[in-house]
Write a structure and sequence with these properties.
The chain has 132 residues and is mostly beta strands. It contains 1 helix and 8 strands, in the order ββαββββββ. Bound molecules: zinc ion (ZN).
Amino acid sequence: MEFETSEITVYEYRWGRRLCGFALTRDSAVEGVQNHYLYGERENTEADSFLGTKWAESNDGDGWWIEPKTVFAVKLPGNLKGNFAEGETAHLIWQCPHCGEYYSDDTAEDTASPQLVCCSCSRVKKYYLVEF
Ligand SMILES: [Zn+2]
């Protein structure tokens, strides 16, 4: 099947060289960092389970960094499933056109279409915009 491609800006966020997530806007990338399971004050934990809360001052600095990237994202159809009235977690169902893998991502009820997702099947990160 052929899918439409669109050029978009992806905001990847990372700590040092470690890519921790991505978002469609800078604001949601900041939110993604602040909600990330590795975001937290280091000294408050016994184990070194958090990376920290500081922001890097350059893209090779120590800390959280948001990097805008222009990418070509493939638009895919998806299915949002879940019985919100029963308080179920919603799931966004989509299939990677590259490897054929099906995904069922936990999604918030108020999730707006399209959602930015990616599959780790290729060495070059491929982004998809799932529309539902
Ligand atoms: Zn894939």
